[in-house]
Amino acid sequence: MTPHKRSIVSNGFVRSGYGDMHAHRNALMMEEHVAMLRAHDMIDETMAINLLEPLHKCWAYTEEYLKTHPEYTGVQPEMTAYTTAMRHKKERDVEMAKFVADLEAGRIDEWGDPIGSDEDSASENAKNSRCSSTSTDTDRNTASPLTSPADPLTITIRPPPKMLSNNPAQSDSPGSDLTWPSSSCSASSSSKSSPKSQSQPQSQSPSQGRKRKYRVEPLAPLPGGEDYCQYKYYQLLAICRDRNIHCPGDTQEVRNLLIQDDINIARGLPRDVSRTWHGKRKYKTEVPEELKGGSCSGGSDGKTSAKV
């Protein structure tokens, strides 16, 4: 009987007594893992020596090493149940989807801080109730009366990029840079108006529960064109339905869509036509008499069935 050939593997001593390769592969993978951790200075030399000990031996940390790491208890925390983990994942997905929607709409910045003022809150709440019927944030905010902030902030309004695509004259509009008085001006005027305000602190933090709504800058119409400022929110929606225009957003956003549609018709540009067929559904608010049958700025009729 020929003698068994001696193994030429460098760390063959870590192999089990049955001659399988399980312990050998584990030792090689651990060696690569420890080398990577040491290269990135994530563990010290003592930890590296302990990790390189053969796994088939009775492995344990030394008392000297455990004294330097008092946070180690040796007890693994209980793993979260699968259903609980999936529920947490869905909650995070909903929060992330809301964050992305608010960021794209301009209501918050990339850090999650709100942008803009509180105007057009009624139409914004109506929009939120249509888009998310299961959300209860709007009900909580409107259930209790909220005090307005004592110090208005200085805010410069920038329009969304989509509103400036086909209107080069937007930068010349008188409302391109709207600012509100700073907190220092309001504090000085209030201190001069009444003697009681001098004894009170001038800076008061706004209510934490109040959400500041973003402000949309009005789009400049064509010379002699309609600005739709005299029409209310539901009248504007009726005009959009009559002209078959997709109309999401609050009051000023719908006005901007109508003004942009007038500009596109006058310049022969493609229109943002809705492909939704309203059918025979009846609405309480009708189109104003002077705007029935198409756009206000001349050009072709506002009713079409597809993009031209």
TrEMBL record:
Residues 109-221, 285-308 are annotated as: Disordered. It comes from the Eukaryota. Residues 164-180 have a biased composition (Polar residues). Residues 181-208 have a biased composition (Low complexity). This is Uncharacterized protein.
